[in-house]
Amino acid sequence: MAKEAGLTLHDRRGQPRRALGPRTINMSLDVISRVLKEAVKRGILHSNPAADRQLRLKVTQRKGNFLEADELLAVIEAAAVIDDPVSRQTMARGDLVRRMRGDGRAWKEIAAEVGVAPSTAIWLAGRYRNEGKPSARRAILATLGCAGPRNSEVCALNVADLDFAHGVIHVRDSKTEAGIRQVNMTPWLRDELLAYRATRPNAESTDPAFPTQTGACRDKDNVNRRVIAPAVRAADALRAKRGNPPLPAPVTAHTFRRTFITLMLEAGAPVPYVQAQVGHEDATTTLKIYAQVLRRRDRKRHGQAFDALMTDAVPSAQSIMMLRNVHFRDWARGDIPPAPSGSGHRNRPSDNL
Predict the structure, then answer these.
(1) 8 A C-beta contact, residue 119 and residue 155
(2) What pLDDT does 25 receive?
């Protein structure tokens, strides 16, 4: 009603309030209906007006999106820039200022030669790129996009869950029984996580794998607001400078999960293997994404980014056969269609996609 009247409601912080979506309204009506149903049972009310199904709003099922390989890399790279925002140009000017200062030159003289104010010259002298600084955002997004965990699962990971000796990620805390699993690290992801782990030499095995700046365990809201959202904004800005289109909206934690499934299927991984890697209880969800992959347009223009992420990402057939929870009897009976024979990329050429 406020919207129809041309009014904008604000919260306590002065931010505009967002209108409730149909799904939220329906869920609220369901709760109210259960309460009023109990009131009717006790004789407090004569009827339950919230039980009227005509009050429910139509909910449009939103089709899940995913990122192309080059888009995923753009988000991962942008995350590292957020954590270490000193640009190469600024670094070069900082090195120049420090050399000039080392020669005993005055700040005013340095500033005049560089073409900045003396205060800016002093600021440039303090700009160092800390190569050993851990980029938690980059590591989190690399894990989300190249291992497919749920948001809550990546938050629950400890240092010991990143098993580099066996090349797996142990997901011990999941919302389903099928979600308790071991996820094989792709070679690219293993290198990324090893580099991140090397920046935390004193971390204990029980410490969070991807802690906040204070060392605390992250939650889903933290990942959404402090990791994904700023990285997506930075990636869109980076892509705009390069003349590339923006990322498909909205980009959520589940977008990265679907991206992992898509990349693995395009790389030729069997559907049951991918199902086990992401912890789906049945193949229905995996197959829906599989059907989407079959309709994909030509992948060749994304080949370089795809190869960077997915080279040797799919284990050999013998290794897959040894994995637990991968039911190849269903595969043999033909209950699950075969995975695509290729992706259109140089590491597995095919005309299927």
Answers:
(1) no
(2) 86
